[in-house]
Amino acid sequence: MNLEERVISKEVVFEGEKIKVVVENVILPNGVTARREFVNRRSGAAILALNEDQQVVLMEEYRHPFEKTILTLPYGKQKGEETLLQTAQRELKEKTGYSAAEWVPLGGMIPAPAYSDEVVALFLAAHLNSSALPTQNDRFFNRKSLPLNEFFRLCDNGTILDARTILAAYRFRSYLQEATGK
């Protein structure tokens, strides 16, 4: 059965700095008309940065919708015509002050396919070089480093709840198993 939906009309009902809210009317495979509402958001990259001490670099940041601080990997949206790798490289530098000599793609993800068209690329960044952390006037966060086993434990036990971070941990664990044969 063909499951595609054909768009017959589209309207942007809200446009903010980070998102657009789009409403589309579609024709379903059975010929019935339906309404689809979704968030349009630029693609982005999440970076699992591993320092020389085999610690994962994380960000602790207050997230207003949840009214609490959460731990996440550095993450950011594409700007202009950047590739997702260029986005990852820029975001790692902006969010942590690090650059990396080695970049390994860990795949991608669709965080919320029911209501958003966002796509996230996941990367491993290794052989880090540190520089000064850039000043940002509109973002406040703490840079933290956790030993790799502690990072995996916090992802496994539900302390870390961010889906990008958890999936990157899972993909990196698989990458390590393939690389070491264990």
Molecular structure report:
This protein is an alpha+beta fold and 182 residues long. It has 2 domains: 6-40, no CATH class; 44-180, Nucleoside Triphosphate Pyrophosphohydrolase. It has helices at residues 84-96, 148-156, 163-180, and strands spanning 6-15, 20-27, 33-40, 44-50, 55-63, 68-72, 75-77, 98-109, 120-130, 141-147. Strands 4, 5, 6, 7, 8, 9 and 10 form a 7-stranded mixed beta sheet that branches. The termini are far apart.
SSE inventory with pairings:
Layout: E1 6-15, E2 20-27, E3 33-40, E4 44-50, E5 55-63, E6 68-72, E7 75-77, H1 84-96, E8 98-109, E9 120-130, E10 141-147, H2 148-156, H3 163-180
Parallel strand pairs: 4-9
Antiparallel strand pairs: 1-2, 2-3, 4-5, 4-7, 5-6, 5-10, 8-9
Helix pairs in contact: 2-3
What proportion of the residues form beta strands (DSSP E)? 35-45%
Q: What's the rounded overall pLDDT mean?
A: 94
Low-confidence stretches: none
What is the overall silhouette?
globular
The CATH class of the largest domain is Alpha Beta
Treating each run of at least 4 consecutive H or I residues as one helix, how many helices? 3
CATH topology of the largest domain: Nucleoside Triphosphate Pyrophosphohydrolase
- Approximate helicity band: 10-25%
Q: What is the CA–CA distance across the termini?
A: 41 Å
CATH-defined architecture of the largest domain: Alpha-Beta Complex
Biggest sheet: strands, sense, closure? 7 strands, mixed
Structural class assignment = alpha+beta
CATH superfamily of the largest domain: Nucleoside Triphosphate Pyrophosphohydrolase
For the secondary structure, the number of strands is: 10
